[in-house]
Amino acid sequence: xxxxxxxxxxFSYTSGPLPPSGKEIVDSITYTYTDASxxxxxxxxxxxxxxxxxxxNSIAPTALVWQYYRTVTGSIGGAGQSYEIKIITPGQPSFAxxxxxxxxxxxxxxxxxxxxxxxxxxxIQLSPENQMxxxxxxxxxxxxxx
Length: 146
Prior knowledge:
Elements: H1 2-7, E1 11-18, E2 23-33, E3 51-56, E4 62-76, E5 83-87, E6 110-125, H2 128-145
Antiparallel strand pairs: 1-2, 2-3, 4-5, 4-6
């Protein structure tokens, strides 16, 4: 994420540590969408509206939180059809300690076209104690914004 932020002036994010583990979680992502923006082939067109996008966690009993996954897109033996393979790292470690290509395994004749990092905001149920943990991480992330 830091590498992406350093390469693209239209992208930024904030994160904070989740107590008691200290696992870094993303709180917000901001980016500028343009006609030149690249999208993974498995996503829908967001429409013609160019401009800034800003999405934040929402912490409540039913919360919106960020989740990431990594995939690799490519072809087999140079064939024209494109395939996408998920990159799995056991234990769902934080994005902050997981390299984008960590645990990358593809068949020997798979030709990599792109490595994809996808973030999505998902709705989950949080217990009161987990709400407090996520709110603590959110407060730390908010401190980084100012």
